[in-house]
Structure formats: structure tokens, C-alpha cells
């Protein structure tokens, strides 16, 4: 008898193959180096869920010899495919983890599949209590093994960084440090910005937004349905081919719910759970990341308790800074961070508390971000109107407010916010974008945000940025309905009239002299090439508004 699961898998694998077509031929599974040994195990969670474990140790180290441990808990590490990239060779799925950095330093590297993924049983939970329990169980089990010193550091990017944040929320025994890069900290704001669906890129075809966030649940279900390898163990094969349909129906419905106040989303917001955390955290976030945007992660960073926390914030995309960020030294800082807090080695962690990559390709150190001298400068915008229609570009969809040419350099560093008093239907949206306009009228978007139109006052919180503005340039603020490549929604096809509006610009009051070596990240070059536009001077005629900007003098 053919099961629903078998039928589902055939259709799923067809979709996965279509996705694979879009991936470069060079994207192949990383083989396990011959100088290391691999074995598998299972953990039984308190609710009976069986979690599959891959264990990688330096060659020649006896099973009973304890080492410090680096742990990644993941939905992406199936033996047959890493995400949608087929894995030709058997072995642990270690793509993009750079495990040799830790293995050469004497660590054991452990990978645990979240429930419903890879070789683990159960249903996917999208950051809910089941997955948080999986993370706590994985940490405590790893810390208790004879081959472990009892201290565990968690490492990952994207969803695998999210599970590190779940570790901070759960505080399991043995968790000594977390390195989390481009993490999800609040899955609702990961998928929706104030109720409006983000569009995610279709890399490597394009990094512009294509896939609406409403389909994210389906995509994760497809990943969860990756079949096993023929050479996997019977238990792995059984778990990977379990009947999932009754588990997944509610999952898909919950992840497409735009209401932030639903119980599903409230339970998954990690900020209240991580507030006051003292476990050392090494955090990374790219300001131009198309996936996990520079948004609530800074709320989490600034809610941490005392501890030896570190951060890299700068102009890169969805990655660690192992490569292509424009600055050397990331691997050395990461390894020293784990050596100090996980391996208890007498080392100093190089670098400042916060490494900041500015949009002008220069780098500096900071003690906090946004910096202490970042002040919100209120700017009154022009009244105006726009058509909430989407799809085709046109000047009827926007209006502008611009500064006079800047008399001195300015530096935007923080999270801008805007307030609009507007008349329009409740299903209309208001988008506010800030631009850096050069003297030749070429302009680059600095940051942007969107919100549904509110009856009395619409508040728009924009993405974070760190952006020097050169003297002679102008600051432009564009009010529009939506940026079609960034958000997906159904337009109201109505006119919106803005009676009054303002934006708070977080500007540094003291100049910065970059004190760290570095250059241009790969994603910053792409941003300049893809996002620079030419503004018709007629659009800006009569659009100048006064801006009382800081007189930036003195040392920070």
C-alpha cells in the first residue's frame, strides 16, 4: 500500500530538484576530512522524540577522552541533502560550518537534527516549545557524555543561529557560550514587518525579493520531507519517512498568520526570554542581509545582561564573516571566543567589543550599538499623497522630502522611525525610505520600513543602518505605498493623503575616525550596483525641507 508520505515525497523531491537547478554546480557537499572520525547516536527527549546526532572528533582521540564541544542544532543537515543541495557522499552534513577550525583546535563537533528534520522523529515546530526543548536536551546530553568536558558552545548561521538563541532562552546546564550569526530572534518579524509579508530572494538567480514569506512554512515542510540515504540506519530511515501530514497542516496555517498577537507568535518571540542573559554571546548581523533583516536583533543585543559579549555589525549579507566581509580576523576572534569560554584556555579574545563595518567600506570599533552619541533628530516631512496600487512604477506612487546639500559630513547610526497622519483605507500601506542623494542626483537607499495604514497615526520603524553621509550630499525621504521587490501584499487601489509626517534620524553627534583595517564586503558592492538609481531633478523640485542636523565636533 502506498502511503500519503510516499506520494508527498515524490512531489517534494520534484520541487527540490527544481530548486537545485537554481544552485551553481560549484555548490557541492563538503566531504569529511580523512583526519577526523565520525559516528552517530540518538537522544530520547522527555516527550519521547528521538533526536538524531552526528558526532565528529579528531582522528585518534579515544571515545573516553573528554574535549570541549561545539554544537549546531539544525533543520538543514539531512544526510541526503544540505537544504536543497544533494549530497553525493555519505557522512555528516557539514557544509558551511567550517568544522575544521574547531576540530584542529581539539574540539568535538556535534550536529543534532531538530524534531521532524533529518533523522529525528516528531513534527517541525518553527521555534516553538518543542524545538526549544530539543536544544536544551541536545546541550545537556552533549555536556554529559564521557567524550565531553561538560562545557558546550553553540554555533550557527540563520536557523542554526536561531537555535543558539533558543539555547540562551532555555539556559540548559553545560551551555558555556553561543556564537550566532544572522539569527532569527522573533520569527514573526522575520516573516512579516508590522503585518506586511517580506519577500525573500531566489539566490543565486537574484537577491531581490521573489518568494513571499507566507510560503516559508511550506518551504520548511519540503526540507523536513527530504528522504534518507540508502545507507542510513533503519531508525534514521524510519524517522525520515514518517507520515507527517497531520503534523504539518497546522504548522503551515500558523506560519502564514499575519497577526503578531496570536498565541503561536507570542510564544516564539525570544526577546523576553533572553532579556538579561549573561551567557557569553558572539553576535553577527549584516545591515544589507536580504534574509534576516537588521531589525529586532538589536533590541535583543541591547537587552542582554552583563557578560563577555561580542558583535560584528556591518555591510554583508546572510553569512558569517569567515569570508567575503571585507575584513580579516573573524575566524581568529571566533576561535578565541570559544577557547576562552568553552575550552577554559588562558587566551585573550582579539578585537573590540563591537566591530562595525560602515557603508563607506571603512571599519571601526564601538562599545555599544547604536553608539552612545547617536541622537534622534526629528525632521518634519512635506504633506503629500500617493496611489496605493503597487506593481507598475510611477511618480503617482510616491512623494519626496529632501534636505539642502549637507554643509558637513553626517553619520546615520541606529534605527530610524517615522510617523504619518494619513487618510486612506486600512488595507493600504505606508512605506518610508531614506536615501543618500549625491550631487549628480544618483541616489542609494539607506534604509526602509513599512506598516499598514492606521486610523489616527501610522508608525513605521525602519531597518537599522550605519551610514556616513558626505558633505554636499542630500538626505532624501521617500514616502510610497510599498517597495514591490521587498514586500508582498494586496494593494487597495486607493489614494492616500498624508496631512503631516515626520522622521527621526539617528545621527552621531561626534565624528568617527575608523580605527580597524578592512575594505568592501561583497554584498556592499552588490548593493551599490543594484540599488543605485537616478532621480529626475523635477521630482525633487520644491521638495526641500529644513533639517536641523548636529554640528559634529569633538571626540567621541
UniProtKB/TrEMBL annotation:
SMART domains: PepX_C. It comes from the Bacteria. SUPFAM superfamilies: alpha/beta-Hydrolases (SSF53474), Galactose-binding domain-like (SSF49785). Residues 335-506 form the Xaa-Pro dipeptidyl-peptidase C-terminal domain. GO terms for molecular function: hydrolase activity. Keywords: Hydrolase. This is CocE/NonD family hydrolase. It comes from Nocardia callitridis.
Amino acid at each position: 500500500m502506498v502511503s500519503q508520505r510516499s506520494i508527498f515525497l515524490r512531489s517534494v523531491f520534484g520541487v527540490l530538484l527544481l530548486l537545485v537547478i537554481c544552485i551553481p554546480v560549484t555548490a557541492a557537499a563538503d566531504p569529511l576530512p580523512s583526519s577526523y572520525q565520525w559516528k552517530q547516536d540518538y537522544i530520547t527527549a522527555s516527550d519521547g522524540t528521538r533526536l538524531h546526532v552526528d558526532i565528529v572528533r579528531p582522528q585518534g582521540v579515544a571515545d573516553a577522552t573528554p574535549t570541549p564541544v561545539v554544537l549546531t542544532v539544525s533543520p538543514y543537515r539531512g544526510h541526503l541533502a544540505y537544504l536543497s543541495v544533494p549530497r553525493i557522499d555519505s557522512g555528516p552534513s557539514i557544509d558551511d560550518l567550517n568544522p575544521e577550525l574547531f576540530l584542529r583546535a581539539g574540539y568535538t563537533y556535534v550536529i543534532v537534527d531538530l524534531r521532524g528534520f533529518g533523522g529525528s522523529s516528531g513534527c517541525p515546530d518553527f521555534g516553538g516549545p518543542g524545538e526549544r526543548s530539543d536544544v536544551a536536551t541536545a546541550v545537556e546530553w552533549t555536556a554529559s557524555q564521557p567524550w565531553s568536558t561538560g562545557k558546550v558552545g553553540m554555533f550557527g548561521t540563520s536557523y542554526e543561529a536561531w537555535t543558539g538563541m533558543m539555547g540562551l532562552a532555555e539556559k540548559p546546564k553545560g551551555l558555556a557560550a553561543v556564537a550566532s550569526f544572522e539569527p532569527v530572534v522573533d520569527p514573526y518579524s522575520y516573516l512579516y514587518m508590522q503585518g506586511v509579508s517580506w519577500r525573500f530572494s531566489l539566490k543565486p538567480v537574484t537577491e531581490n525579493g521573489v518568494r513571499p514569506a507566507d510560503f516559508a512554512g511550506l518551504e520548511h515542510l519540503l526540507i523536513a520531507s527530504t528522504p534518507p540515504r540508502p545507507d542510513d540506519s533503519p531508525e534514521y530511515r524510519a524517522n525520515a519517512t514518517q507520515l507527517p501530514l497531520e503534523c504539518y497542516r497546522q504548522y503551515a496555517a500558523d506560519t502564514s498568520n499575519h497577526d503578531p498577537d496570536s498565541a503561536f507568535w507570542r510564544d516564539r518571540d525570544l526577546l523576553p526570554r533572553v532579556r538579561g542573559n549573561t551567557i557569553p554571546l558572539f553576535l553577527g548581523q549584516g545591515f544589507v542581509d536580504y534574509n534576516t533583516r537588521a531589525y529586532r536583533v538589536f533590541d535583543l543585543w541591547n537587552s542582554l545582561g552583563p557578560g563577555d559579549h561580542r558583535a560584528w555589525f556591518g555591510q554583508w549579507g546572510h553569512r558569517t564573516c569567515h569570508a567575503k566581509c571585507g575584513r580579516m580576523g573573524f575566524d581568529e576572534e571566533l576561535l578565541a571566543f570559544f577557547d576562552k569560554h568553552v575550552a577554559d584556555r588562558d587566551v585573550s579574545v582579539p578585537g573590540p567589543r563591537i566591530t562595525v563595518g560602515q557603508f563607506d567600506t571603512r571599519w571601526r570599533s564601538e562599545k555599544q550599538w547604536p553608539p552612545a552619541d547617536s541622537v534622534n533628530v526629528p525632521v518634519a516631512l512635506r504633506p503629500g499623497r500617493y496611489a496605493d496600487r503597487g506593481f507598475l512604477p510611477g511618480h503617482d506612487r510616491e512623494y519626496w522630502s529632501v534636505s539642502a546639500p549637507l554643509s558637513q559630513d553626517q553619520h546615520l547610526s541606529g534605527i530610524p522611525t517615522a510617523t504619518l497622519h494619513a487618510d486612506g483605507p486600512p488595507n493600504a500601506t505606508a512605506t518610508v525610505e531614506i536615501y543618500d542623494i549625491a550631487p549628480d542626483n544618483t541616489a542609494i537607499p539607506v534604509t526602509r520600513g513599512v506598516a499598514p495604514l492606521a486610523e489616527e497615526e501610522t508608525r513605521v520603524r525602519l531597518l537599522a543602518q550605519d551610514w556616513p553621509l558626505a558633505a554636499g550630499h542630500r538626505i532624501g525621504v521617500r514616502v510610497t505605498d510599498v517597495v514591490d521587490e521587498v514586500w508582498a501584499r494586496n494593494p487597495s487601489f486607493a489614494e492616500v493623503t498624508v496631512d503631516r509626517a515626520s522622521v527621526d534620524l539617528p545621527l552621531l553627534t561626534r565624528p568617527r575616525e575608523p580605527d580597524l583595517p578592512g575594505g568592501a564586503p561583497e554584498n556592499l558592492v552588490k548593493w551599490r550596483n543594484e540599488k543605485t538609481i537616478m532621480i529626475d531633478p523635477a521630482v525633487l523640485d520644491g521638495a526641500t525641507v529644513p533639517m536641523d542636523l548636529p554640528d559634529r565636533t569633538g571626540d567621541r
